[in-house]
Specification:
Elements (H helix, E strand, L loop, with lengths): L1 E5 L9 H15 L4 E6 L2 E3 L16 H8 L1 H19 L6 E4 L10 E6 L3 H4 L6 H9 L2 H7 L5 E4 L2 H5 L4
Parallel strand pairs: 1-2, 1-4, 4-5, 5-6
Antiparallel strand pairs: 2-3
Length: about 170
């Protein structure tokens, strides 16, 4: 089997989806697949990010922290990033792409996505303001579910699977 796993969620210290993705990457590596590659940002690698390679969330450079607060920069990033990821995946259509964090970039091959806690999307009023605002602007989850090539998902709970089509 040939697999490409997005490792963007791996940030240190590992929590939640980062831990899930890190453990999944290690398990896939041990499985001895025919070909295993990792999509990190807009590039491919054969190495799982380790603590000294992945930048801790708490130590982002000041320019990046400012950029993340600018809605125009964020909007431009969300527009360009899927295209850059699709470009990186070109030629790997014989692989299965796994997006472990709600999101599938445009990809001509088979793909699977992991859906876990959907509550920020469904009940944003019960989440801290910053997370709720982010979820309300984040189109990755609804766009993934609406894609015609979206067929397979891994759901962390029955409620996640139930609300998939909302």
């Amino acid at each position: 089997m040939k697999v490409v796993l997005s490792v963007d969620p791996i940030k240190f210290p590992l929590t939640g989806i980062g831990r899930y993705t890190f453990e999944l990457a290690q398990g896939l590596q041990r499985a001895g697949l025919q070909d295993l590659q990792f999509l990190r940002g807009v590039g491919l690698t054969r190495q799982i990010p380790v603590p000294n390679q992945a930048q801790p969330m708490s130590t982002l450079p000041a320019w990046k922290q400012l950029a993340q607060k600018n809605r125009w920069v964020v909007a431009a990033f969300r527009t360009i990033n899927p295209w850059l990821k699709a470009r990186a995946l070109r030629g790997l259509e014989d692989h299965v792409f796994h997006g472990p964090n709600y999101y599938l970039p445009p990809f001509g091959g088979r793909s699977v996505v992991t859906m876990h806690d959907l509550s920020p999307y469904l009940w944003s009023q019960s989440h801290p303001r910053a997370g709720a605002v982010y979820a309300s602007r984040d189109r990755a989850f609804p766009e993934t579910c609406k894609r015609p090539d979206y067929r397979h998902g891994i759901y962390a709970s029955r409620s996640s699977a139930f609300f998939r089509g909302r």
